Amino acid sequence: MAFSSSLALPSPSPPSGTFRARPAGRIRTGAAGRFQACSLPSPPPDVVVTRERGKSAKLIAALEKHNIQSLELPLIEHVDGPDTDRLPDVLRNDKFDWIIITSPEAAAVFLKGWMAAGSPKVRVAVVGAGTARVFDEVSQLDHQSLEVAFSPSKAMGKILASELPRGSESTCKVLYPASAKASHEIQGLSDRGFYVTRLNTYTTVPVEDVEPLTLKLAISAPVVAVASPSALKAWLKLISKANNWDNSIACIGETTGSAAKKLGLKSVYYPTTPGLEGWVESILEALRVHRQLKEAPKC
User: Where are the transmembrane segments (predicted)?
Assistant: First the structure.
């Protein structure tokens, strides 16, 4: 488990894009389909879960086992990237030694393009168990065409770039379908003699508007759980007008945790190994510290 204390919250610029939010299990539909909180959760929310719509169910269920009340507030949504339409043609017309997939969303987008290309034979390297699970059903049905053949010792792009095996060929060609906002860690493979083709197959759009009661509840929660630097930045933009927000951020892994520290957040928690279990433990640790501070005698 990692924890850091640093500077005060910065004041980000206004957000762009659109999305709506809802508290988990307590919604009603208002005018124009807008989701609104119909009543205050009882007890109030302990944690805000911020993954895009439809992807927080496992985290919410895991937290419920610990009697943790969640407020679901999607902060980003995924949209097509500039290279989305290119992916099937690239897969049809070229051969790669490895396809590198570093997130569940990248996996889902890749599978669509791979099927559109006629399901050519590919060998895939993945970062993280969650990413690998996206391929489970396909690899079981058609294991001869799609093989998940490698994952690094730690679920981080820079570790994959240092550990990815290569054959004896003079060149080793890698296709890297990724978010347009992903870092360039994977492209460090070039230093090891790999030839890397990157396609920006999707990108993220931050939240723009949240129903005021939902935002008020979110700001009051002691912990906000984020799974990506994009979601983290969306949260900071969303609360840019809130005064003295100093609660905790619980990150899915080190990459997002490091981004939170660089952005000046004071209380940052993340597991040493990315994944759902470690993320839940980080949230629980943040809540334990919050309760200890709340119960400590005032001087």
Answer: none
- Rounded CA gap, 255 and 274, in Å? 9
- Check if the beta carbon of residue 179 is closer than 8 Å to that of residue 150: no
Distance (Å, whole) CA 47 – CA 24? 11
112-116, 176-180, 238-242: least confident range? 238-242
List all residues 6 or more positions away from 82 whose beta carbon is below 8 Å from its beta carbon.
180, 200
CA distances from 32 to 24, 28, 29, 206 (A): 20, 12, 8, 20
Backbone angles phi, psi at 62, to 5 degrees: -65, -40
Tokens of residue 207, six digits: 């939240």
The full length of the chain comes to 299
Complete edge-to-edge strand list for the sheet that includes strand 172-179: 76-80, 194-206, 172-179, 98-101, 122-126, 146-150
Beta strands in 34-130 (DSSP E): 35-36, 47-49, 70-72, 76-80, 98-101, 122-126
Of residues 157, 75, 129, 70, the one with CA closest to residue 278? 129
